[in-house]
Amino acid sequence: MKQRSLRALVFLPLLVASLGGSIAACIAVDSGSNGSGGFDESSGGGEPTGPVGPGVGSSSSGGFNGAGGGGGAGEFPGEPPPPDPVAPPAQGADAGTDAAAEFTCEGIDDSKPVVLYLSADDSNSMGSPVHTRELIGMGIEPMAQEIRTYEFLNYYRIHYDAPAAGKLALFPELANTAVANELDFQIAVRSFDAIKPRRPMTVTFVLDTSGSMGGPGIERERAAVKAIAASLAEGDIVNAVTWNTSNNVVMSGHAVTGPNDPEVVGLANGLTASGGTDLHSGLVAGYGLAEQHDGAGRLNRVILISDGGANVGQTDADFIGEKSKDADKEGIYLVGIGTGPGGSYDDRLMDIVTDKGRGAYVYLDSTAEASRMFVDRFDETMEIAARGVQVELTMPWYFQMHKFYGEEYSENPEEIEPQHLAPSDAMIFNQVLKACDPAKIVATDTITVRARWKTPLTYLDQETEVTTTVGDLLAAQKSGLPKAKAIVAFAEALKAPTSQNLADAFAMATAANVKGDDPELLEIVSLIQKHPQY
Question: Which of 127, 294, 511, 529 is deepest in the core (most CB within 10 A)?
Answer without folding.
Answer: 127
